[in-house]
Specification:
Blueprint lengths: L2 H4 L13 E4 L4 E6 L2 E6 L3 H27 L9 H44 L4 H37 L1 H28 L1 H8 L2 H5 L9 H10 L8 E3 L8 E5 L16 E2 L17 H12 L19 H5 L17 E5 H6 L6 H7 L4 H14 L10 E3 L6 E6 L5 E9 L4 E8 L3 E13 L3 E7 L1 E6 L5 E5 L2 E5 L7 E12 L5 E6 L12 E7 L5 E8 L3 E15 L5 E7 L3 E5 L15 H6 L15 H7 L3 H31 L12 E5 L6 E5 L3 H7 L10
Organism: Himantopus himantopus (Black-winged stilt)
Main location: membrane
GO biological process, one term: lipid transport
Amino acid sequence: RTQAEMAHTCRGTINLSTAHIDTEDSCNIVLSNGGRTYHLKANSEVERQRWVTALELAKAKAIRMRNNQSDDSGDEEPASQSDKSELHGTLKTLSSKLEDLSTCNDLIAKHGAALQRSLSELENLKLPAESGEKIKAVNERATLFRITSNAMINACRDFLDLAETHSRKWQRALQYEREQRIRLEETIEQLAKQHNSLERACRGAPGLSSSSTGITSTAKGHVQSAKGEASDEDEETEYFDAMEDAPAFITVTADPKHHRRSGSNLSGASEGHPEDWNLEDSVFESSNQSSYNESTCKDLLPKKRRRTRIPDKPNYSLNLWSIMKNCIGKELSKIPMPVNFNEPLSMLQRLTEDLEYHELLDKAVKCESSTEQMCFVAAFSVSSYSTTVHRTAKPFNPLLGETYELDRLEEFGFRSLCEQVSHHPPAAAHHVYSKRGWTLWQEITIASKFRGKYLSIMPLGAIHLEFHSSGNHYVWRKVTSTVHNIIVGKLWIDQSGEIEIVNHKSKDKCQLKFTPYSYFSRDVPRKVTGVVSDADGKAHYVMSGTWDEKMECSKIVQSSHGSTSTEGKQKTVYQTLSPKVLWKKYPLPENAENMYFFSDLALTLNEPEERVAPTDSRLRPDQRLMESGRWDEANVEKQRLEEKQRAVRRRREAEAVEALEEGEDYEGYIPLWFERKVDAVTGELICVYKGGYWEAKDKQDWSTCPDIF
């Protein structure tokens, strides 16, 4: 290490170049340097000898490096060629200036001596006494000037000698400082993530509301290249940056009234018809959100009055580190967590909460075009994340056999059923039927890992959506959710990854990218972008927005291949019509920050209802106690339920061993309302609804339900 590096080493570091290495016996090694001594113990004499050899080699290398640093020769870490050129240029300039100073010094000395001779001759002349005194003072000042000039020249010469002597050390110091700067930038980025709330306040929220789209606008560097290929566009055309990954594109917003098709000017252009974007006949609503709400709220007003608040969250203190320090690296579902980390909803209810914007699917039913329908499906897939932006608490892990129903057939036209079909790994099956023309089903397994500073949640499993009239069958998967600042700082959640939505009937596709948060990025936080294309790969719509606020859709009129970007990717220029708002998040209810940031729908999910199955999450006692603010009692009840579930699992394991010994097959736990089948579309084994639940509810015959509470 250099001297600068040694000054920044950790406490307890030993400089090997001056260290003494000795052996006490067959297994012990003594490493000493001044007043610091380390005693190392190997497992065997062979291992000890290997360590001694390695330390001696490292010591020899450290001595060579120290000698090389002292005489400026050796195998120092080379600087880059540009750094060397810059340094040599600086030294050459200094040398040139020094020569100029030397020339000036000779001239000063020559003229100074002549001046002094002239003054001496004046002193010898018979002049008045006053003039002689003045001439003497001038002579003294000239002498001082010559002495000062000589001193300056000598100092400059010494500086150049020193610069030449230490040039290599400067190179190493410069390289070290650059590495330190990179480490500092990485540290700053980590600190910035830990202080996300402060960063948001500095950036200012008004920037989000003023932006008309979710894609960062006005990239001046791209305007000229795009105009060069589509010269017939308006001067007021807006340009947008594309996604960083696959395939990069630029979106151009055009006015339908002034749009002129000019395919001959566009290389490889694919054209659309602006008249297809009919503002009156199209299912797409106006971008004015007020008209969107007016058109939907009349049909969606609930017929039954439901609760609008729950008891405020109590303020309990908790020693977080004492619980978390033994959890690093473990599967989250196997960690005994108190309810302090939970919210009073189960994972089954959180899964049902994805239906909050079900009206998007009701609108999609009315679409005649499959690509237009895909836009609504894509907006629906993004809307399920809108409630997670403030919801950093963990939902309750459902017990095996636990169910949750949400019957809104009369109010909203759909009824939903979830069942916990597996405990290890935890898996939930979900089935939704809507009399307005669609059916949704999924089996989700949650894989989660606690990594000390953050928690990664990876939902596994496909989501299926089928429309009854058209037979369009859509399949997609969820992205990864990450909860940051688990130990220190304010918790915040981010969504990242890509969603590919495929219509297996028409082969249409939609690629959505959830951009991960970065402190140094200029992008809008929580940005989502994507393109809807048909079976031939032709792009029809551009999707843009944020997963916590809104999604917009723009119809593509023309597309062309643009210039290659600096990253080597070829950008596609999409000329689109004005964007339409497909989805916008509902505002949170009043006092939401004291009610776990629940939405209006979430507040009703755990509301007690009659005639539900005895396994319904609403009847779970620990969850109900937590909602009521009785957390200590909820923790006791939670432990009782988990121990009861473990006892049932041990009994099943014993039955499986007994069946194996007798040569019989043991089926294990069989879901009550779902059955496993091979999906004809994906080929995966998935739990699908087999029927019988709603019939059992009508008869109030729950005799087949297990006793889990």
